[in-house]
Amino acid sequence: MIQTAIEIFDQLWADQVRKIGAIPGKDALSAINTRLQVDFEVGVTPTAIIDSMRVDEVPAKLRLLVQSLATFVATAPQRNP
Fold first, then answer.
1. pLDDT of residue 34
2. 3-state SS assignment for residue 77
3. Do residues 68 and 58 touch, judged by C-beta distance below 8 A?
4. So what's the pLDDT on residue 81?
5. Residue 71 burial class via C-beta count within 10 angstroms: exposed 0-12, middle 13-18, buried 19 and up
6. pTM, full prediction
7. Are 18 and 12 in contact (CB under 8 A)?
8. One-character DSSP codes across 13-76
9. What is the mean pLDDT of each run of 10 residues along the chain (81 residues)?
């Protein structure tokens, strides 16, 4: 059973896209920031990353989701407090 798990892990780890998806985003950003701070004495924030992205760098499914959410919010009935 352990051998099978190791084999499956090795197959997934060999695929760059799956490798990146194997760790939580917060952990990845934390590790990147640690390295940037040690090597260059700088860091990045999620907001800075988003601000520097171009539309063509955002996956189409994510763009569609954001557009759908924006439409939903714009057309939702207003609630009175």
1. 94
2. coil
3. no
4. 65
5. exposed
6. 0.53
7. yes
8. HHSHHHHHHTS-HHHHHHHHHHHHHHHHS----HHHHHHH--GGGS-HHHHHHHHHHHHHHHHS
9. 90 83 87 94 91 91 94 84 65
